[in-house]
Amino acid sequence: MTEVSGPARNLRGLLAGAAAGAAGTTTLDAVGYLDMVIRGRGESTTPEVTVERLSETFHVPIPGDGDVRNNRVKGLGPLTGMAAGVGMGALLGLALSCGWRPGNAVLTATATTGALIGTNGPMTVLRVTDPRTWSRSDWVADIVPHVAYALVTVAVVRGLESDPADHASEIRTGIRQCGAALRHALRS
Fold first, then answer.
1. Rounded distance, CA 181 to CA 51, Å?
2. How far apart are CA 185 and CA 168, in angstroms?
3. pTM, entire model
């Protein structure tokens, strides 16, 4: 690939990050659904409640009556999570294209933290949930998918860099460390 500079490089970084965020979001959703299968738990209603609260707070009505409106709310809930995941990836890609050069551990921690804040932040501010009241299993169930999101997002954004270094061994090490931490958390 030819080297690009300035706004074109930033746009490329933004788009690569968005693609990485989309891949990470797919992983986050898959891990969440697997958790539902493994533990037999129901799906969370917090995304829909968040949409309702956003609608009330910003005085933007959701059109329709009865089932039509309810179905729109159920569709908007997951879309807010997708927007957060793609947006976080886009920001990471943009930051990298602007010259930020962290190691994979810092980049993964940033992606995890950003995804947690991007999804849980609005729900906390709108008082849909209060993380201070969560149990250990609640935290594990929330953090594990976000770490999986971050690992995939970082792997994809690194792979899409115009001059990617060989990050494969760092990514494999990160995955092994996360797997060990998850096993430890599940045994506790």
1. 33
2. 26
3. 0.83
49-67 burial: b if 16+ Cβ within 10 Å, else e: bbbbbbeeeeeeeeeeeee
In single-letter form, the type of residue at position 50 comes to T
Q: What single-letter amino acid sits at 11?
A: L
Inter-residue contact 85 to 28 (CB < 8 Å) = yes
Neighbours of 183 (CB within 10 A): 10
Of 105, 147, 117, 115, the residue nearest 17 (C-alpha): 115
| Residue 16: other Cβ atoms inside 10 A | 24
- Write out pLDDT tens, residues 126-177: 999 999 999 998 999 999 999 999 999 999 999 998 665 555 565 666 667 6
Give the pLDDT confidence of 103-133 residue by residue, as tens digits.
999 999 999 999 999 999 999 999 999 999 9
Distance of alpha carbon 52 from alpha carbon 46, whole angstroms: 10
